[in-house]
Write a structure and sequence with these properties.
By secondary structure, the chain is of the alpha+beta class. The protein has 2 helices and 6 strands. About 15% of the residues lie in helices and about 30% in strands. InterPro entries: Bac_photo_RC_H_C, PRC_barrel-like_sf.
Length: about 120
């Protein structure tokens, strides 16, 4: 997968690009991660900011839209094609200004790009 595709929705999710995903539950292969706080598209690096609640001590995470495997609007849920541990190990998100920092976002993209296959989860 080319590195720039980590910042784009999969072709079958193209219809989601302009959809407001705020409040959607984010689910990994092995459980719930949190809820979408907002989406952003700074420097062409489209991503979601996910509020993890108490799971990661109230920390928010940045997730590139390229790891979104499915979106279920009726259930207000989206699934990412990675595990909770993989998401938790991503470069740490500390301040809102990082969502506009090309160096930080590049580090996040590099991390997710190196993960094993991002095929849709089963079940």
């Amino acid at each position: 997968m080319p590195i720039d595709s980590i910042w784009s929705y999969a072709p079958d999710l193209d219809h989601v690009q302009e959809q407001d995903l705020t409040g959607y539950t984010v689910v990994a292969r092995d459980g719930t991660i949190g809820q979408v706080d907002r989406r952003a598209d700074h420097h062409g690096l489209r991503h979601l900011v996910v509020d993890t609640g108490v799971w990661v001590f109230g920390r928010s995470l940045v997730v590139p839209v390229g790891v979104v495997a499915s979106v279920e609007p009726g259930e207000r849920r989206l699934t990412v094609a990675c595990t909770r541990a993989e998401v938790k190990a991503a470069p740490r998100f500390r301040t809102d200004s990082e969502t506009q920092d090309p160096a930080y976002l590049t580090a996040v993209g590099d991390y997710y790009h190196r993960l094993p296959s991002r095929e849709s989860p089963t079940g």
